[in-house]
Amino acid sequence: MKTINIAIDGPAGAGKSTIAKMVSAELGYIYVDTGAMYRAVALYLTENNIPDEDIEKAVEKVEVSLKFVDGAQRVYLGDRDVSELIRTPEISMAASRTSAVPAVRARLFDLQQKLARENNIIMDGRDIGTVVLPNADVKIFLTASAEERANRRYKELSEKPDCPSYDEILKDIIQRDYNDMHRETAPLKQADDAVLVDTTELTLEQSAARISEIIKERV
Ligand code: DC
């Protein structure tokens, strides 16, 4: 049976994961966060102090898998649940850097395609509509201004100890956008047939409603 595949791409902090979770819960699809897979690989490389020149070899040994508990994705390195450990600013930056390595992308590509073949999914990332699922039923490119994305991240982190300043967050976002858009393999870009949704002026609820409407029109 053909499964339904929805691709959502866009830069860091555009709200992809929160919105994709809301919409997949509404439509009964599985939500797959591919960024978490890149983060898990980055955690492995960081924990094992793998130098850049050895990444290609080391990545053959990495076992990343996803489990879905009550609809929520958990990410595993071997049998260790690393879902929380991968959410630090250090791992964000490491993932942005190591995801440029073709061997890292190749390692995760098969796993992503298999999930899409077997399930009705909303998959988010940077290259889902362009590379991983070029035949997705619906493609959305979700974005917002860098300042608005930094603002949202700052609000999210401001309750926590050691919260970085707004300027640091904005600098990180701009750096990650640059890395993600300028790498040679599978750079972040809007697929020709993707619908652009700019959430700078939208609330989360408005963004989710817009995306759900786009999907319902097409599927
Ligand atoms: O979506 P995120 O911030 O969790 O992603 C972490 C990093 O992983 C991001 O900087 C770029 C990379 N990534 C990628 O290259 N391709 C994807 N499909 C998803 C994420």
What does this structure look like?
With 219 residues, the protein is of the alpha/beta class. The chain is globular, with a radius of gyration of 17 Å. The protein is built from nine helices and eight strands. It has a single domain, classed as Rossmann fold (3-Layer(aba) Sandwich), CATH 3.40.50. α1 packs across α9, α2 packs antiparallel against α5 and α7 packs across α8. Helices cover 48% and strands 17% of the residues. The strands form two sheets. The chain has a five-stranded parallel beta sheet with strand order 2-6-1-7-8, sandwiched between helices. A three-stranded antiparallel beta sheet has the order 3-4-5. A hairpin with a 2-residue loop joins β3 and β4. It binds 2'-deoxycytidine-5'-monophosphate. The site of 2'-deoxycytidine-5'-monophosphate (DC) has 15 residues, from α2, α4 and α8.
